[in-house]
């Protein structure tokens, strides 16, 4: 087979799997390498042998989208069962419903407001002296007032980002983070669900094509691209360049796994909004598969902290300093020939799974169309800055 028809993909997560399959279907020979000992990237799921619970190894993943093509795509590989994410939070010795909704407001203030009354009440709580909010804290105080801010936003945000909400930009809280009805479904999207047999099984099916070879436990080096017509790289953008311009800032997560005989907390996700509780949330994985029954339980206490060189990068920070550094890395990446940077790490963005799949499909199409028209492939599908 000619070099032109051979493709190297770095990363066997959703980005790599979807691009790999789309190209394999069009006659390309696709080699995929991943440094981990499993496929699936951060969506990896595995059934716990002792309890039978499907565990979301790198933190819980809920599929939600308005993109009908992406929904049809994933349903072509596995069956999705209904799942609505309903999050609770413990604050001030009580349990409330999230996102902050009419139930939360009524419970918190000891009221029986109807929607219009709650709206008017919150307008009175809002700090109107803040006319041009610059920070997350100012934005929250302007939207919901001090009491709700301190109970539901301040501590959680501080733990998640590792800094005071006074140091974060107002843009993080773009819209009023409150609902004036009893809708406690975390996501608004039309299609929501969970793959019945887990994400890794779904991704294994995406990868199941005779023209795709997956090699695990293999870390990509830049020289590995020789002998291939194109490389699609879903590893960390700064890692590709051996961090020569420094490391892009990430938050990492530590999961403290524990098991329980029975139902530990009665729901999938319990947040902890107070700063003196060191973890941000506890997730109980059997509740992510509500159609299954297990007597035992697997839970994760989740801690957020700054990402060090040997940690797994989870959330890109993307504040002013990181964006400047990102621009420099993007300029370097654009000088590379026959390499496209994809996915959450390759483009240094937080991407939900549906967006990841959409971009992977579009990337594969752009590549195939470019080949047909003899056009060079872009380094990025769209600018990550
Ligand atoms: C805590 C958390 C919770 C999330 N929850 C949700 C959710 O509920 N719903 C949702 O839609 N999305 C969620 N996401 C987002 C979801 O994880 C991403 O959309 C998805 O993982 C992106 O897939 P990817 O293939 O781009 O990246 P990844 O899944 O990170 O895959 C990249 C792969 O590349 C490999 N790799 C990296 N560098 C190299 C190298 N040098 N050589 C070889 N291999 C390499 C890695 O091992 C990895 O397997 C969540 C993300 C996080 C962090």
Task: List the defining traits of the structure above.
385 residues, alpha/beta, Rossmann fold, 7-stranded mixed beta sheet, 5-stranded parallel beta sheet, 10 helices, globular, binds flavin-adenine dinucleotide
Put the structure in a nutshell.
This protein is of the alpha/beta class. The protein has ten helices and 17 strands.
Question: Can you give a write-up of this model?
Answer:
The protein has 385 residues and is α/β, with parallel strands linked by helices. 30% of the residues lie in helices and 21% in strands. The protein is built from 10 helices and 17 strands. The strands form 4 sheets. It has a 7-stranded mixed β-sheet with strand order 8-7-13-14-15-12-16. The longest helix is centred in the middle third of the chain and has 26 residues, at 136-161. The relative contact order is 0.20. The mean pLDDT is 96. Bound molecules: flavin-adenine dinucleotide. The site of flavin-adenine dinucleotide has 34 residues, from α1, α9 and α10.
Give the SSE layout.
Elements: E1 6-10, H1 14-24, E2 29-33, E3 45-47, E4 54-56, E5 63-65, H2 68-75, E6 80-81, E7 87-91, E8 94-97, H3 102-109, H4 115-125, H5 136-161, E9 191-195, H6 199-207, E10 212-215, E11 230-233, H7 237-240, E12 250-261, E13 269-272, E14 281-284, E15 296-306, E16 315-316, H8 320-333, E17 339-341, H9 343-346, H10 353-373
Parallel strand pairs: 1-2, 1-11, 2-10, 7-13, 11-17
Antiparallel strand pairs: 3-4, 5-9, 6-9, 7-8, 12-15, 12-16, 13-14, 14-15
Helix pairs in contact: 1-6, 1-10, 4-5
The structure holds flavin-adenine dinucleotide (FAD).
